[in-house]
User: Fold Transporter from Streptomyces katsurahamanus.
Amino acid sequence: MSACVPTRTDNASPEPRKPDRAAPHDSPPPGESPHRFRIEGTDLSASISVFLIALPLSLGIALATGAPLQAGLVAAAVGGIVVGRFGGAPLQVSGPAAGLTVVTADLIQHYGWRVTCAIAVLAGFAQLALAALRVARSALAVSPAIVHGMLAGIGVTIALAQLHIVLGGTPQSSAVENVRALPAQLAQLHPAAISVSALTVTVLLAWPRIPGRTGRIVRKIPAALAAVAGATTLAALAGLHLPRVDLPSWSSHALPAMPEGPVLGLIAAVLTITLVGSVESLLSAVAVDKLTAARKVPDVRIPRADLDRELAGQGVANVVSGALGGLPITGVAVRSSANVSAGAVSRHSTMLHGLWIVLAALLLVPVLDLIPLAALAALVMVVGVQMVNITHLRSVKRNREMLVYAVTLVSVVATGVLEGVVIGIGVAVAVALHRLTRTRITEEQQDGIHRVRVRGQLTFLAVPRLSRALGQVPPGADCVVELDGSFMDHAAYEALHDWQTSHLAQGGTVEFTGRSGVRISEPASETPGCCRPWTPWRNHHCDDRPDRDTAHPLADGVSSFQRDTAPLVRDELARLEREGQRPSQVFLTCADSRVVTSMITASGPGDLFTVRNMGNLVPLPGAEGGDDSVAAALEYAVDVLRVDSITVCGHSGCSAMQALLSAPPVGAHTPLRRWLRHGLPSLERMRNRQRSWARISGRLPADAVEQLCLTNVVQQLDHLRAHESVARRIAEGTLRLQGMYFHVGEAQAYLLANSDEHTDDAVFARVAPASSSLVKARA
Assistant:
């Protein structure tokens, strides 16, 4: 898990202050007419970058489907203008996508091009109906292993088909036939097609890896455009005789016809286009949200995707594209990520890219007719291979869903997209049922106590094994039943309850515990409120806890960790040991036992480089009686680990600040008093009448202790800036400072506004709860 210190605030302070990020560009600034059309310079440059990528890809995808090449341009223009205007994801770029290539090619082969256009129109209406029912979020419930397997299968199918064109031949009707025909194709190679294709693939793969200043300059031109342009130039200069792009007159452009064929077949075709297009668009929209949130430049807040509106926009675009004789449309991750990376700040970039496609289709036909089809085939083949994503494979393997992924991939290649997805869903359900029923039940005796351990969900399927294990406990014996699972159905509960009643009647004892060893009372209302899984770490005792004269509470906690947590984190910790620590942030906080850094920052192993001391103090360089341990930690984190930020976190009820207020350590000689002298600048800052008091979420501090805690955070940030390594990184713009205050009693964090600036106006704003974790789960 990777997490960071929260940075979102709710701007609850009534004091006017500069916002952290600019307002979204979908909403006009105050005082400006909402009807005024304004295009940012970053949107204009981003639209050109996306256009240069979309133009060759649209032609290549049209070639791969067997549709008229003009259909790819129509779909790209409609996807940019229509979805850009009506969609719910402002920075997502839509158009003809590789994910629909296999489906569309199959439809064209069975029904012809004009009927395929009509099927695209019907699929658009189906998407509009789904959007009206507001079921867009439901599409995200499909297992990522199925989605990734589907895309990988489509990628393999595309690559196999285009490989024949790359070698100078003609693709067959299916992936299986393409594999069978490959030996014969290899025996009849066409040098001209292979040379053009090889150049295209080489440029595509090498272009992003050109080093140095030259690489930074040439990468402003998209790799796809550079590859196709290079191959076209080679073919023209060498006089190679190859099939080339042939864009007929728009006056002869084919429009949709009434659907003809078996009704069930047509319904299946519409459902396939709807399913694949909708899922790919919605997952792409979620991914674009993640890319936009992680982007630092430009510093503009982009509204999160409205998935139902996005689905409706895709539906309208498919209706328009099909009616105009274009390919089916979906959200495209490659073009969307390019749009985000190029600095787009509104939907205007997407719409402009569609406009450039229209102008190119009308004005650049002579130039487009020079492009060899082999170059487009090589381009699409590389895109297909890249759809077998290594990152997705690692994620699927980590979540133990390789079987679902592999079966979906093979099924899509062998049978088709819709059939492959159905098979994948069936395998996913079977795997889920297998995991649900795979419950481990063991019985053993330790120190005269019989222990029955249940690992996994306890359902009626496990009742026979449960009864068998409970039957091994002798009558009258002391027994502990340890339940490690989040679900127990009625049949399992009845079996446990009946056995408990019988065992107690025979003079035995029964105790039920959870996975952490905490006793589960019966009934639940008898459980004292103080008893929670973290009870052993709290400075109190519960009356109903069993006496443990021979064990130390810390040892109990370590034992529980080894039993319950270590198996879950062992692989991750082993990876961290191999790769070393690479935290992104320093978290400097108090040694107070109530401040649990991993809990309040939702972080895990390897996320934070934590420095703790009494009072979260940062001694000034060369301070009298200074302690180099803090300076050494800062130097190591800043210069060696190259962290991105440092957070100083104070907290309510700090004992160090209370000691400073009650008896300032002037002339003290004990280690504690000497250390607290580093907090005297904070005390002087608070008492300075020329400085305004810190405020917390629009209110003044509750008392002098809280005021000193807040002031101390601001003062320690100033001390940080006095350290040479920190000052240097701040000047370079590669290190940020952040002030934070944690109110223990409220379990509420507050962030200091303008932490990176020297200011006497210290305002701590409340951190709002995070949004739904659904996006994180799908990333």
Observations:
- The longest strand covers residues 736-743.
